[in-house]
Design goal:
This protein is α/β, with parallel strands linked by helices and 553 residues long. Helix content is 56%, strand content 6%. A 5-stranded mixed beta sheet has the order 3-2-1-4-5, sandwiched between helices. A hairpin with a 5-residue loop joins β1 and β2. α4 crosses α24, α10 packs across α13 and α23 crosses α24. One of its GO terms (molecular function) is protein dimerization activity.
Length: 553
C-alpha cells in the first residue's frame, strides 16, 4: 500500500538519486559538516520529508566515494584554470591540528586573461618528517609537478614566513623569486617595539586589569552598569594573545576607550575588596598607552590592506615599508617610551628585503598607482625602468619561442627539440640577458627585394619588438599615476591590449605574487573548523580533500 501511495524507491543510479547524493556531498564540503551527519535523526527526517523515495547512502560511501569524486571533478577544473595562466605564484605555511598532526598548505595565485586575480588552495598535506628545508622542498617540487605549475617563460614566485627552513626549502626547490610575508615582517617589527621594557611592563599591568574583569562576574556587571551611565558602548575588555601584536594594540585601544568606566568600577566597594592588587593606570601610563596606539595604528592598517586577495599587494611592500620607516624617524617631541619603540622597530625592519629590494621596486613600478616612484632619486628610477625594459624583451622572446615550439608540436615545421631560450624561465629577480635563439635559414628574396632591398630596408623582427617595448615603456613611465582608490588590475585590463601589449605580460607576472602568506594562514581557521574536537581522528587525505573543496568550490 505504501509503495502504491509513494511509488517505488529511487534507484541509486537514477539521475534524481545521483543529484541528491551529490548535493549532500556539496553540503558536507561547503558547510564543513561531518560525514556522520547522514546518520543524524534530524537530517534524515529532513531528507525523508523532501524526497521520501530517496535512500541516504552510508557515511562510508560519502567519505570513500562521493567526496573523492567531487574532489577529482573540482581538481580538474582548478588545473584547467591554472593551465591557462602564463604565470603562477604560490604561498605556503605550516600548521598543527588538534590531533597534533603537522600539515603544510600550498595556495596558488594567478591573474586571468580578464585581469581578475584568482586564488586556489592546492593541497594540505601531512608533514611526518622533521620540518627541515630539504623535506619542505620535496613537497614544493611535488606540488609543482602534480599541479602543472611550471612555465617555460616565467619562474614561480613563492611567499613564505621569515623562518630559515623556508629559505632553504625555496632555494632547494629551485623556485624564485622568494618573498618573505610582509605581514609576518610587520609582526616581528611590532613585537620588537612591544618588547621595550617600559612598554612590556605597561602591557602587563593592562593585561592584569583585563584578566580580572574576565574572571569576575561582579566586576563585569558593574562595568556594564558604568558604561551605560557614561553612555559608552557596552563592550567587553579585550585580552591580548602574546604572539599576535595587533591583539595587544586592540587591548590598549579598548582599555583607553573605557578607562573612565574601568576606573569607576575598580573604585566600587563591591569590586575593590576583590581587586586589591589591581591598579588603574596613572596619567603618565595613559599618555604612553595613547602614544603606543598612535604609533602602531598605521602598521595595523597596513596589515589589513595587505590581506586583500582580489587586488595586487606585492607592489605595496616598498611604499608601505618606506612610510613606516619614515614614521619611525626620531622626533624631539617623542617621549622616552616612543623613542625606544621607534628605535626597536626601525632596527628590526630596516635590514629586511635587501636581497629582493630591486625586484620589489620593479613590482611597485608596474603598479600604475605608484609608477612615479617618488621616494627614489631620478637616476635610480630610470634604472628600475631600464631593468623592466630588459626583462620585458626577455619575456617576449621566450614567449615567442614557446609559442613556436607549441606550433611545431601541433605539426608545424621547424627544428625539433627546445631551443636554448626555452630551456630556462625568465629570471625576474636577476639582470635580464637577451636570449640567443638559433635562427632558421633566411627566406629567398623576391625580385623587388633584390632590386630595392639595399635602399628600403625593414627592421628585423627582434629589433622591431625591442623598439615597440621601449616605446611602451617610455609611454608608461611618463604617464600620470592613477588614484589610490583605483584598481590597478582594472587599469591594466583597459590598457593592456591597445596601449601595452608587450609590457602587460610582465606586469601580470609580477603583480600575481601576493605580499603575504595570509592565504595559506587563512586555511588554518578553516582547518580548525574541519578538524574539530568531534573529528580529531579525521584521516589526512580527508582533511586535504575537505579543505580543498571548501576553498575552491
Amino acid at each position: 500500500m505504501l509503495t502504491s501511495t509513494f511509488g517505488a524507491p529511487l534507484a541509486q543510479k537514477s539521475a534524481r538519486a545521483k543529484e541528491i547524493t551529490k548535493c549532500i556531498a556539496v553540503f558536507m564540503a561547503k558547510d564543513m559538516r561531518p560525514f556522520s551527519v547522514v546518520e543524524n535523526e534530524g537530517f534524515r527526517l529532513l531528507i525523508n520529508t523532501l524526497e521520501p523515495k530517496y535512500h541516504i547512502p552510508s557515511r562510508q560511501y560519502f567519505s570513500q566515494t562521493e567526496i573523492p569524486a567531487l574532489y577529482k571533478q573540482t581538481k580538474e577544473k582548478v588545473i584547467q584554470t591554472l593551465r591557462q595562466a602564463n604565470s603562477i605564484a604560490i604561498t605556503t605555511d605550516g600548521w598543527t591540528s588538534r590531533a597534533t598532526e603537522s600539515f603544510i598548505t600550498i595556495t596558488a595565485h594567478v591573474i586571468t586573461d580578464e585581469w581578475e586575480m584568482l586564488s586556489f588552495v592546492l593541497q594540505t598535506r601531512p608533514l611526518y618528517e622533521a620540518h627541515t628545508g630539504v623535506h619542505i622542498a620535496e613537497i614544493l617540487r611535488s606540488a609543482v609537478a602534480e599541479w602543472e605549475l611550471e612555465r617555460a617563460a616565467c619562474g614561480i614566485g613563492v611567499v613564505t614566513d621569515n623562518a630559515r627552513n623556508m629559505d632553504v626549502a625555496v632555494r632547494e626547490a629551485g623556485l624564485a623569486p622568494h618573498v618573505k610575508c610582509f605581514a609576518h615582517t610587520l609582526n616581528l617589527a611590532s613585537q620588537a617595539g612591544l618588547s621595550v621594557p617600559r612598554v612590556h611592563r605597561l602591557l602587563g599591568r593592562v593585561r592584569r586589569v583585563v584578566a580580572f574583569f574576565h574572571r569576575s562576574t561582579t566586576a563585569a556587571a558593574v562595568l556594564t552598569s558604568n558604561q551605560k551611565a557614561m553612555e559608552l558602548p557596552q563592550h567587553k575588555l579585550i585580552i591580548d594573545v602574546v604572539t599576535r601584536w595587533n591583539s595587544s594594540l586592540d587591548m590598549l585601544e579598548r582599555y583607553l576607550k573605557h578607562q573612565s568606566a574601568v576606573a569607576a568600577t575598580l573604585l566600587s566597594p563591591y569590586v575593590r575588596r576583590n581587586a586589591r592588587e589591581i591598579d588603574t593606570l596613572d596619567h603618565a601610563d595613559i599618555n604612553d598607552a595613547e602614544d603606543i596606539v598612535k604609533l602602531l595604528k598605521p602598521m595595523k592598517t597596513a596589515t589589513t590592506v595587505l590581506s586583500d586577495e582580489k587586488t595586487p599587494t606585492v607592489s605595496l611592500i616598498v611604499p608601505l615599508k618606506h612610510m613606516i620607516e619614515s614614521s619611525m624617524a626620531p622626533n624631539e617631541e617623542d617621549s622616552a617610551t616612543v623613542s625606544a619603540m621607534k628605535r626597536a622597530i626601525l632596527d628590526n625592519l630596516s635590514n629586511r628585503y635587501t636581497d629582493v629590494y630591486d625586484w620589489l621596486l620593479e613590482c611597485t613600478a608596474l603598479d600604475p598607482r605608484f609608477r612615479t616612484l617618488p621616494h627614489l632619486e631620478e637616476d635610480l628610477r630610470q634604472d628600475v625602468f631600464r631593468r623592466l625594459r630588459e626583462k620585458a624583451v626577455q619575456l617576449s622572446n621566450k614567449t615567442n619561442v614557446t609559442m613556436e615550439e607549441a606550433d611545431e608540436g601541433d605539426g608545424g615545421e621547424g627544428t625539433s627539440g627546445p631551443t636554448p631560450a626555452a630551456e630556462q624561465p625568465v629570471n625576474l629577480t636577476g639582470t635580464a640577458e637577451e636570449a640567443e635563439v638559433e635562427q632558421p635559414p633566411p627566406n629567398k628574396k623576391t625580385a623587388l627585394e633584390d632590386l630595392l632591398g639595399g635602399t628600403f630596408t625593414e627592421p628585423a623582427v627582434a629589433e622591431s619588438q625591442v623598439y615597440c617595448i621601449e616605446s611602451e615603456m617610455a609611454k608608461y613611465k611618463n604617464g600620470k599615476p592613477i588614484s589610490l582608490k583605483s584598481c590597478p588590475l582594472e587599469w591594466w585590463k583597459e590598457n593592456a591590449k591597445i596601449m601595452y601589449p608587450l609590457l602587460s605580460p610582465l606586469a601580470k607576472a609580477y603583480l600575481s605574487i601576493p605580499a603575504t602568506s595570509v592565504p595559506s594562514e587563512r586555511v588554518f581557521s578553516t582547518a580548525g573548523d574541519i578538524v574539530n574536537v568531534r573529528r580529531s581522528q579525521l584521516l589526512a587525505d580527508n582533511v586535504d580533500m575537505l579543505i580543498f573543496l571548501k576553498k575552491n568550490m
